[in-house]
Design brief:
The protein has 336 residues and is α/β, with parallel strands linked by helices. It has eleven helices and 16 strands. It has helices at residues 11-19, 41-51, 78-87, 104-107, 121-129, 149-156, 195-202, 209-212, 244-252, 283-299, 316-326; strands at 4-7, 24-26, 33-37, 60-62, 92-97, 112-116, 133-134, 162-165, 176-179, 186-189, 206-207, 236-241, 258-263, 274-278, 304-308, 331-333. The strands form two sheets. Strands 1-8-2-3-7-4-6-5-9-10-11 form an eleven-stranded mixed β-sheet, with helices on both faces. A five-stranded parallel β-sheet has the order 14-13-15-12-16, with helices on one face. Adenosine monophosphate binds at residues 57-60, 95, 107, 110, 112-114, 136-137, 174, 177, 188-189, 223-226.
């Protein structure tokens, strides 16, 4: 298949592709999405084939204005309204009971649907000109999410109808996913909107166990995406827990072909190859850079990536959630 490379001013062409049931990669403020008309089950099924995504992993439906939601959900509770007022447009996805119009391909057979109103103008323009868009991240299933059009090209060229280039994604990690169908609202995936911000608006909110820990045998995932291996570069990711001195001593002893993801403050003391994730307390920059750095490490054919185990407050919880999956949940405790 020929993949058209479109620029930010070609949303008319992209909209026509969506309306005839095609696939377009679109920029959003989180990561690039691989979009199809959310109300066209056949078009949505193509997303799963292009990505190699398991069919039981549901998709997020993206809207361009809040009025569109009425046709997509069967209930819009007060807490959803509060969250929408506070965080939309933006990187928050809300799970609600679905309407009959949502095809099974989108919800993976669940009776709920995930909805988000993105901030990115190019994405909203495309939705307004075409339809609500079902879109997961525009990467091959399992690999790090794309934060530039170039990343999308690497994974999807020849497999989809078009890539709309809207520049770099600002946030760099996927949206926060919260479900409002449980008695107490529950965060299923941390992202650009923090747990602290959400609690500030709707009060009591739980963080699902699977955010921080692997699922135990036999445990079912509230969010099916959480049970799959995710975000993995080809290189082996090793997470190290300890202070800066311990971290630097450990990585400087490593032989072979490794690269270190370090804080900016540590760069001068590291004597093997490294990439800076940003300043230690600058979580937003760390989130923004994470996936691009995992991809860079593969481009440069490093075989191991040594990284600090991230903190679990603020947007760093999203970074932790992604990298711990990339590392297969293994953390090495540094001593001495
Ligand atoms: P992605 O599209 O790859 O960014 O992932 C979307 C995430 O939202 C996945 O972890 C899905 O499992 C989750 N998700 C989407 N729809 C639902 C839903 N109706 N119920 C629970 N989780 C959902
Ligand atoms: Mg994804």
């Amino acid at each position: 298949m020929e993949t058209l490379l479109l620029n930010r001013n070609q949303t008319d062409t992209a909209a026509a592709i969506i309306q005839r049931g095609g696939l377009v990669a679109v920029p959003t403020e989180t990561v690039y999405g691989l979009a199809a008309d959310a109300l066209n089950g056949k078009a949505v099924a193509k997303i799963f084939r292009a990505k190699g995504r398991p069919m039981d992993n549901p998709l997020i439906v993206h809207i361009s204005e809040i009025a569109q939601i009425s046709g997509l959900v069967s209930d819009f509770p007060e807490k959803a309204q509060k969250l929408a007022d506070a965080f939309w447009p933006g990187p928050l996805t809300i799970i609600l009971p679905k309407s009959d119009r949502i095809p099974d391909e989108v919800s993976a057979g669940l009776d709920t649907v995930a909805i988000r109103l993105p901030m990115n103008e190019c994405a909203r323009e495309l939705i307004a000109k075409s339809a609500p868009l079902a879109a997961p991240s525009a990467n091959l299933s399992g690999s790090p999410s794309p934060t530039t059009a170039e990343h999308v090209k690497k994974d999807m060229y020849g497999k989809i109808d078009a890539i709309l280039d809207g520049g770099d994604c600002e946030v760099g990690v996927e949206s926060t996913v919260i479900t409002l169908v449980t008695e107490v609202p529950r965060i299923l995936r941390p992202g650009g909107i923090t747990a602290e911000q959400i609690i500030g608006v709707i009060g009591e909110t739980k963080i699902d166990d699977a955010v921080l820990n692997p699922l135990k045998d036999g445990q079912t995932a509230a969010s099916p995406g959480m049970k799959y291996k995710h975000y993995s570069p080809k290189a082996n990711v090793v997470l190290l827990k300890g202070n800066s001195d311990q971290f630097i001593r450990y990585v400087n002893r490593q032989k072979g072909n490794p690269v270190v993801l370090c804080y900016e403050e540590e760069m001068q003391r590291i004597h093997i190859d490294y990439f800076s994730v940003g300043k230690e307390n600058d979580y937003s920059t760390q989130a923004h850079r994470l996936f691009a750095l995992l991809r860079d490490a593969d481009e440069k054919a490093y075989d191991t990536i040594y990284a600090h185990c991230p903190k679990t407050d603020g947007i760093s919880l999203a970074v932790y959630n992604r990298i711990i999956r990339a590392a297969g949940f293994e953390v090495t405790e540094l001593e001495g």
